[in-house]
Amino acid sequence: MFRTPLTLFRTLAIAEAISWTLLIAGLILRATADLPIAVSIGGGIHGFVFLAYGATAVLVALNQRWGLGPAAVAVVSAVIPYATIPTEIWLQRSGRLRGAWRRDAGDDQRDRRPIDRLLRFFLRRPWVLAAVLIAVVAVVFVVLLVVGPPGGKG
After folding, report:
1. Burial 68-79 (b: 16+ CB within 10 A, else e)
2. Shortest CA distance to 91 belongs to which of 122, 118, 124, 66?
3. CA gap 38, 84 in Å, rounded
4. At what angle do helices 84-93 and 5-33 cross, to 10 degrees?
5. Which of 24, 50, 70, 105 gives a 20 to 30 Å CA spacing to 42?
6. How far is the C-alpha of 117 from the C-alpha of 128, rounded, in Å?
7. 114-141 pLDDT, tens digit each
8. Contact between 49 and 62 (Cβ < 8 Å)
9. pLDDT at position 154, please?
């Protein structure tokens, strides 16, 4: 399904934008119809997708060997409603999403770095990678739920 970094990144960028819509709709329903559960549902979905998008941005940035600037823009774009879509368009047009997953080492010296070897290990085992990423996102999500929202539950 996600045969290229582009397809994975685009899917999560769109999902992040949709999750913003759910959160905003929940906020509107809470304010207009006194339905606080709408924010809990929309916010929960948004929070999980937000973390999944961030993990995806880091994974794709490592695979595509982006510098710190494009990687930071990709991650930070999730904080601004709907910004993941123009970010994905920019990354695609600038060629940063071009190419395949780097499952095998090449002649590039960077392929010898531990992070690149680890990346290739997981990319050769996509189900393991997916399970690890989902587990990490789920653990972070649960920890953030326990900690509570910014500013308290007030």
Report:
1. eebbebbbebbe
2. 66
3. 23
4. 160
5. 70
6. 15
7. 999 999 999 999 999 999 999 999 999 9
8. no
9. 58
